[in-house]
Write a structure and sequence with these properties.
Elements: H1 4-39, E1 45-47, E2 50-52
Antiparallel strand pairs: 1-2
Length: 90
């Protein structure tokens, strides 16, 4: 029977490999999207069963640039902390 540390190492290896595959897929996706942008003249386009749609959203608010908020602690207005985990290979 596999002990707890061996099991941890096996799962960490699998998670790390999945993470690396996701990063590679993301890189590939970005390259393909850039090609689609160029072929679409940076406009929305439709071809066959695919739609490549351009949309815009408003940017984030840079609260540090709001003069009336200078010196005000905004932490009391924050929502709950978000738990994140990061798996690195050492």
């Amino acid at each position: 029977m596999t002990n707890r540390l061996e099991l941890w190492a096996i799962i960490a290896k699998e998670a790390y490999e999945a993470q690396q595959q996701r990063l590679e897929a993301t890189y590939k996706e970005r390259k393909l999207i850039d090609q689609l942008k160029a072929l679409s003249d940076n406009k929305s386009a439709t071809c066959g069963e695919y739609v490549f749609a351009l949309s815009f959203r408003k940017g984030s608010v840079d609260y540090k640039r709001i003069p009336s908020l200078v010196g005000i602690d905004l932490d009391e207005y924050r929502s709950e902390d978000v738990e994140t985990w990061k798996l690195l290979r050492i």
